[in-house]
């Protein structure tokens, strides 16, 4: 990709003219011709020297990126090996980065230890730069400021669209690395939809400072304005915790001062997207199953620099499924484990041992796996966890009067509750399913508001109504009617008793859902919202224990 903001200076053009054919003019012409030939010779030599200088000035910088790792330390060695291959490919000139959600929503091995194993693994890899994702805030803004972003983790956390107040004092718009003699700026941003993926109580401490694309452009433009006093970069890499398609289709659009974009948030592998000026936009999957590795070929400096982006290993993203065909393997087939990979292995062993001590305790036997990949299994799983939310609320003073339980499918992280299919659910399996840092909460809805909340799970797509599968406790019955006005809930009853529109009903669910998460804004119309301060995973464990076995 040719960076369109940094154009080379126009070449000097020499023109040759002729006078009338007189003796004096001939003599004059001869003198001038000799002079011009000399000048052309000098210009040619200068041009050749400039071409040689430009070729000698071109520097290669390699960027290796992951996104949405979410504490999947079981894949940490594979990621470490890919990072090692990138560094062997371009020794001393490689930068390791993340596009956000390094931690949060993590499997039990890391999540049960507040993701300390993941942060240790990032140190072992040498990961030094990351955009802030929404899950970095799962345990609150204070946790991010005091623990996740502490200097000992050696990560520069970036988000240009978050106002740096309070515990965000270690969060920055950008950072610059001098690599192979070039200044490479990394500018970060988090999704503009942060409020829809964080609990309201956490968002109260977060102040968005403009749109992600606008703010990345603001910083990239400043770093490319030719003014050394306010910072200057030779290339700009954007780390944006947002879907690659959202970035590519933005009506604002990233400008030509951005040379390469790493996206995230949707857990997808997306390539072939570009900014308006042609910069690649790459989203490298999730959970450490993919790594993106690109080369920046940089010539010149500052606003006059020219940047070309190439895929270091032949494809934008290297995937774990590539196996022996992984193009990164050809760099050094005889590679043996080094100190950093040995540290990764040790981290995994320690985390797994700790997880086994507390996580392998059996909670309950079950007669089905509650597998959400099948319609029946999904319905049973969602009903089970909605029942657990209701049961958990009723066990507290705050939620003692709860009548209905809810769960949003997006809060259920693993494929099945009995993941190994052995007929038993362990603490680890329950907490892996409920891995997000939500509490159980309650709010009070009128009967009409309850109907609205239930109806919000349906959306029109491709001319038909699609069910969003909002999990509802087993004591609720209703019928649905669909017409031009939208979906309508009819014949609603709770515990066999019809519900009137004006009746007040206490409902339970996780803190994210009941504060409007996943688009269920009907819950925001409720009154008396209260957090029970019981983790939503614990409500499932307690509910399963109370049932004994199925």
TrEMBL record:
InterPro entries hit by this protein: 5'-Nucleotdase_C, 5'-Nucleotdase_C_sf, 5_nucleotidase/apyrase, Calcineurin-like_PHP, EF_hand_dom, Metallo-depent_PP-like
Query: Does the UniProt entry include the keyword Hydrolase?
Result: yes
Q: What are the protein's UniProt keywords?
A: Hydrolase, Nucleotide-binding, Signal
Q: Which domain of life is it from?
A: Bacteria
Q: Name one GO cellular component term.
A: outer membrane-bounded periplasmic space
Is Nucleotide-binding one of the keywords UniProt gives this record?
Answer: yes
Q: Which BP terms from GO are recorded?
A: nucleotide catabolic process
Tell me which residues make up the EF-hand domain: 415-440
The molecular function terms of the Gene Ontology recorded here are: 5'-nucleotidase activity; calcium ion binding; nucleotide binding; UDP-sugar diphosphatase activity
Q: Which Pfam families match?
A: 5_nucleotid_C, Metallophos
The entry's family comment says:
Belongs to the 5'-nucleotidase family.
Protein name in UniProt: Bifunctional metallophosphatase/5'-nucleotidase
């Amino acid at each position: 990709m040719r960076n369109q903001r940094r154009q080379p200076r126009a070449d000097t053009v020499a023109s040759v003219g002729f006078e009338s054919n007189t003796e004096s003019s001939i003599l004059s012409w001869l003198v001038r011709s000799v002079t011009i030939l000399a000048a052309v010779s000098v210009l040619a030599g200068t041009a050749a020297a400039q071409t040689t200088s430009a070729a000698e000035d071109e520097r290669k910088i390699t960027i290796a990126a992951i996104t949405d790792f979410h504490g999947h330390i079981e894949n940490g060695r594979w990621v470490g090996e890919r990072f090692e291959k990138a560094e062997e490919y371009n020794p001393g000139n490689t930068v390791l980065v993340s596009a956000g959600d390094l931690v949060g929503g993590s499997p039990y091995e890391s999540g049960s230890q507040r993701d300390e194993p993941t942060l240790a693994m990032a140190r072992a890899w040498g990961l030094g730069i990351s955009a802030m994702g929404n899950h970095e805030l799962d345990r609150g803004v204070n946790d991010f400021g005091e623990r996740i972003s502490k200097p000992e983790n050696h990560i520069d956390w970036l988000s240009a669209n978050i106002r740096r107040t309070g515990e965000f004092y270690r969060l920055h718009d950008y950072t610059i690395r001098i690599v192979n003699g070039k200044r490479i700026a990394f500018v970060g941003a988090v999704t503009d939809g942060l409020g829809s993926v964080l609990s309201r109580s956490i968002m109260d401490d977060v102040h968005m400072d403009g749109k992600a694309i606008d703010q990345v452009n603001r910083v990239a433009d400043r770093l490319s304005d030719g003014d050394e006093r306010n910072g200057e970069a030779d290339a700009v890499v954007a780390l944006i915790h947002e879907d690659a398609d959202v970035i590519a289709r933005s009506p604002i659009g990233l400008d030509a001062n951005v040379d390469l974009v790493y996206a995230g948030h949707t857990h997808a592998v997306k390539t072939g997207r570009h900014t308006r000026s042609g910069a690649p936009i790459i989203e490298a999957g999730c959970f450490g199953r993919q790594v993106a590795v690109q080369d920046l070929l940089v010539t010149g400096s500052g606003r006059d620099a020219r940047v070309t982006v190439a895929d270091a290993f032949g494809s934008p993203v290297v995937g774990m499924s590539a196996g022996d065909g992984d193009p990164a393997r050809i760099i050094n087939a005889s590679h043996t484990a080094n100190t950093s990979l040995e540290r990764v292995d040790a981290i995994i062993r320690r985390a797994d041992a700790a997880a086994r001590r507390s996580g392998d305790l059996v909670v309950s036997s079950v007669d089905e796996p509650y597998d959400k990949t099948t319609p029946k299994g999904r319905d049973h799983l969602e009903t089970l966890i909605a029942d657990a939310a209701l049961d958990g609320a009723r066990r507290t003073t705050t939620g003692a009067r709860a009548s209905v339980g809810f769960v949003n499918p997006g809060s259920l992280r693993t494929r099945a509750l009995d993941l190994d299919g052995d007929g038993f659910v362990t603490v680890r399996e329950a907490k892996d399913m409920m891995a997000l840092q939500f509490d159980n909460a309650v709010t009070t809805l009128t009967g009409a508001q309850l109907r609205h909340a239930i109806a919000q799970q349906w959306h029109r797509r491709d001319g038909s109504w699609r069910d969003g599968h909002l999990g509802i406790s087993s004591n609720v019955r209703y019928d649905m009617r669909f017409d031009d006005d939208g979906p309508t809930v009819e014949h609603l009853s709770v515990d066999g008793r019809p519900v009137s529109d004006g009746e007040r009903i206490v409902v339970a669910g996780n803190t994210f859902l009941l504060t409007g998460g996943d688009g269920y804004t009907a819950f925001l119309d409720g009154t008396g919202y209260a957090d029970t301060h019981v983790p939503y995973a614990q409500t499932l464990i307690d509910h399963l224990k109370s049932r004994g076995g199925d």
